[in-house]
Design brief:
β1 and β2 form a beta hairpin. By secondary structure, this protein is of the alpha/beta class. The chain has two domains: about 150 residues, Nucleotidyltransferase, domain 5 (2-Layer Sandwich); about 180 residues, ATPase, nucleotide binding domain (Nucleotidyltransferase, domain 5, 2-Layer Sandwich). The longest helix has 25 residues. About 40% of the residues lie in helices and about 20% in strands. It is globular, with a radius of gyration of 22 Å. The strands form two sheets. Strands 5-4-3-2-1-6-8-7 form an eight-stranded mixed sheet, sandwiched between helices. Strands 11-10-9-12-13 form a five-stranded mixed sheet, sandwiched between helices. The structure holds adenosine monophosphate. The site of adenosine monophosphate has 12 residues, from α10 and α12.
């Protein structure tokens, strides 16, 4: 990626805005490929009781406290506070850009884009495709433009990485006029997959052109089939509901169930949304928690069943994606569960033993980078994801390209 023609004191702010929280990181270090995070943190409790927390690169706490000097729902006020805090904390540094994680880019946005008034209006049109995420991403961009109009902003899309998929991976078998309206599979977690696509060849150069299934298993979970670093298929579809079970989402569910619930139990769209986004998945099956740690530490049979259901579906999708791309040369685990749960990795690998997958238990427990046994036909890796770094790189790349085109 192009080098930014700024000093190492330049800083890039990365924002991941949700309904009640705003996670942020500040990257510094010169060129887009050399940057490192210097501060990470979040404002939580937006709308109720905002709380500000920030840590430095060594994870030392820099700030931790209630934020009562601005209204709880005043996003511009909260971002203004954050900008002032960053300016004060990183004395001598200049914020050169802000990059945002944006969940849905629809068919229009296939790459990171500089945020303008027109882009914001176009993003508004995508709200029905991601009603629980997109409005908060847009609100953060509008609020930042309000408090710091001259700061360039860049939108980075979770859907963009999947644009390389073939038609048959992107298309539902529904009438073509509905497909033409944009009712198709988009896929998500693209910034995470893009980071892994970049990282895997550094870890294992022989796999640069391989058929790889990446399992992004976090509170949201999906899998991606990658060939030579490009997405060819993925488990999430039109929304982030499809695919494997997640913390509070069921993953794939027979659409007939939804018709049944509407007709026989009087469910409306809001109730279905609540059921599918907030009450299902690990939480619904266990009746205990959406957090894999709680389930692994519980003696409740329903907790063990939830873990089993999760692993069963992850293994099933690894095999399905291998079939979709016509081969399997490696499996990668990433995100909160994928990086941390020894049990989940072991169970998924066990279920894939017929494909020649074998894990080394000691390497798995030690969270080594390569956790497959010597005799495993398919190497298995743990690669920690870094969506924020990807956003910072894209943001600096877009800004550098803009500067170059202005200079030309
Ligand atoms: P993410 O969405 O990628 O941040 O992942 C968050 C999820 O990772 C949490 O909800 C937990 O379920 C899971 N997780 C984090 N640490 C562990 C761990 N040590 N063992 C099992 N699951 C974990």
């Amino acid at each position: 990626m192009a080098a930014l023609s700024n000093s190492s004191e330049d800083a890039c702010l990365v924002i991941n805005a949700g309904s009640s929280s705003l996670k942020f990181s500040v990257f510094q270090g010169g060129s887009a490929s050399e940057i490192e995070p210097v501060v990470t943190g979040q404002i939580s409790g937006i709308g109720t009781a905002p709380h500000f927390q920030a840590k430095d690169a060594q994870r030392r706490v820099l700030a931790d406290g209630v934020l009562d000097e601005v209204g709880p729902a005043d996003r511009a006020g909260l971002l203004g506070f954050l900008l002032n805090w960053i300016r004060h904390e990183l004395k001598g540094a200049t914020l050169v850009a802000a990059g945002h994680r944006v969940v849905h880019g629809g068919t229009r946005f296939s790459a990171p884009v500089r945020v303008t008034a027109t882009v914001l209006d176009q993003l508004e049109e995508l709200i029905p495709l991601a009603p629980l995420h997109e409005p908060h991403n847009i609100a953060a961009m509008r609020a930042l433009a309000q408090v710091y109009p001259s700061l360039p902003q860049v939108a980075c899309f979770d859907t963009a990485f999947h644009q390389t998929q073939p038609w048959q991976s992107q298309t539902f078998a529904i009438p073509r006029e509905l497909t033409a309206e944009g009712i198709r599979r988009y896929g998500f977690h693209g910034l995470s997959y893009e980071y892994i696509a970049h990282r895997l060849p550094q870890v294992a150069p022989e796999l640069a052109n391989a058929h790889v299934v990446v399992c992004h298993l976090g509170s949201g979970a999906s899998l991606c089939a990658m060939r030579a670093g490009h997405s060819v298929d993925t488990t999430m579809g039109f929304t982030a509901l499809d695919g494997v079970p997640m913390g509070t989402r069921p993953g794939a569910i027979d659409p007939g169930v939804l018709i049944y619930l509407m007709r026989e139990k009087g469910y409306g769209a809001d109730e279905l949304e609540k059921l599918l986004y907030h009450k299902s998945g690990m939480l619904g099956v266990s009746g205990l928690s959406n957090d894999m740690r709680d389930l692994e530490n519980s003696d409740l049979p329903a907790a063990a069943e939830a873990v089993e259901l999760f692993c069963h579906n992850v293994a099933k999708q690894v095999a399905a994606l291998a079939g979709s791309m016509g081969g399997l040369d490696a499996v990668v685990f990433t995100a909160g569960v994928g990086e941390n749960s020894t049990l989940v990795r072991a169970r998924v690998a066990e279920k894939l033993s017929w494909l020649g997958v074998a894990i080394d238990p000691a390497a798995n427990r030690a969270k080594a980078t390569r956790i497959s046994a010597q005799e495993s036909r398919v190497p298995v890796f743990i690669i920690p994801t870094d969506e924020e770094r990807m956003i910072a790189r894209h943001t600096l790349g877009v800004i550098a390209a803009t500067q170059l085109s202005r200079a030309a």
